[in-house]
From TrEMBL:
Residues 5-92 form the Glycosyltransferase 2-like domain. Pfam families: Glycos_transf_2. Belongs to the glycosyltransferase 2 family. The lineage of its organism: Bacteria, Pseudomonadati, Pseudomonadota, Gammaproteobacteria, Alteromonadales. InterPro entries: Glyco_trans_2-like, Nucleotide-diphossugar_trans. SUPFAM superfamilies: Nucleotide-diphospho-sugar transferases (SSF53448). CDD domains: GT2_RfbF_like. This is Glycosyltransferase family 2 protein. Keywords: Glycosyltransferase, Transferase. It comes from the Bacteria.
């Protein structure tokens, strides 16, 4: 059996309902984990789904974990993770699961496969300039990490790697899990011929001809903090540590000078750096009540 987990938080109902409609029927079980304060009702879109409400917003990692545990308890072999703002093809679950089954004959021990991401803002395929491909085999490319949305996991191998790290709360959660899996000699892959449209960040801005992602101020806290937390871990790739740490001053400049809500952004960035240095984790409210 295959199960789908959709994590939502104050969702754009039109986008989320379109996603639910598209994924419904592709898998055997649909679990919606809702981090919104108020419940959302999707029964007008689909009749049968399992709903887990987390009104205190437990974060993306803990929400994934609740969904994964639910799929395991239901007897699912594979689990598909989706964000509320992704747009998927009508056969994505079948394509990814088929590739996972076929990969059993390979020596790469693949635990998770994701689609090729097509950025909604740039209308282009997302290509990493730094991340090198690990291997290539027919319709699969081995990579260092993939994003959570669109990730299909072989649930039979989940016990070995473990669940998502909920101490990170949100940013870096998907990559950390991939790096942890690779440390245990599992492989992460991207499907060459499966494409998914996804929103990376809330918007885009330009500075001296360069386009960069813009997110909400609170996300800056988690991004800055988690860079410092993850940089201490031995299994996190060196290129990621160097790139992210070197870009901190540039990101401070872009958010403190060029964006709106400057004081709020500065406050979140400073608090993220403080907690990253201290080694504090968990939700923001836990550390800055």
């Amino acid at each position: 059996m295959i199960g789908t987990i959709i994590v939502v938080y104050n969702p754009d109902l039109a986008l989320t309902e379109r996603l639910i409609t598209r994924v419904y029927g592709q898998t055997d079980i649909l679990v919606i984990v809702d981090n919104s304060a108020q419940k959302n009702d999707f029964t007008k879109i689909v009749e049968h789904y399992d709903y887990i409400h987390c009104p205190d917003n437990i974060g993306i990692a803990a929400a994934h974990n609740k969904g994964l545990k639910h799929l395991l308890a239901s007897g699912c072999e594979y689990g598909l993770l989706l964000d509320q703002d992704s747009q998927i093809p009508s056969d994505m679950a079948f394509s990814l699961s088929s590739l996972l089954v076929a990969s059993k004959s390979l020596e790469h021990n693949i635990i998770a496969i994701g689609p090729q991401i097509h950025c909604q803002f740039t209308d282009k395929k997302v290509r990493s300039l730094i991340q090198k491909e690990v291997f290539e085999y027919e319709d699969l490319v081995g990579v260092t990490q993939i994003i959570a949305s669109g990730m299909m996991i072989d649930l039979g191998l989940l016990d070995t790697v473990g669940l998502k790290d909920d101490s990170l709360f949100i940013d870096g959660v998907d990559h950390e899990w991939c790096w942890r899996a690779r440390r245990l000699n599992f492989s992460i892959a991207r499907a060459k011929k499966v494409e998914m449209v996804h929103r990376l960040g809330d918007s885009r801005a330009k500075f001296i001809g360069l386009t960069y992602k813009v997110g909400s101020p609170i996300r800056l806290y988690y991004q800055f903090r988690n860079i410092l937390l993850l940089s201490r871990r031995s299994y996190v790739p060196l290129y990621w540590k160097i790139r992210c740490i070197c870009f901190i001053p540039i990101r401070i400049f872009l958010n403190a000078i060029l964006q709106d809500q400057k004081r709020t952004r500065i406050r979140y960035m400073c608090r993220g750096l403080i907690d990253g240095i201290k080694g504090s984790s968990g939700p923001y409210q836990q550390n800055w009540s």
